[in-house]
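Q: Structure tokens for this one, please.
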Amino acid sequence: MSVHAVSSAYISRIEALKNKYSILNSRIHEVQKRPLVGDFYLSQLKKQRLMILEEIETMSEAVSAAS
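A: Here is the predicted structure, written as tokens:
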């Protein structure tokens, strides 16, 4: 697989992750507005968001290194 193909695949994955991150971020804001939402649920959403952000950063660095 060429460097360009890998970069294109990574860029597509990064865009999908950014979309998922945005959706989770909106969900977290919605949940925080509700007074009766458990802390566990909110913390799980935040952990998912953090894992996505870390994957975005890792993949972005890989794309930059390949360029």
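A few notes: Helices lie at 3-33, 39-66. The chain is about 90% helix and 0% strand.
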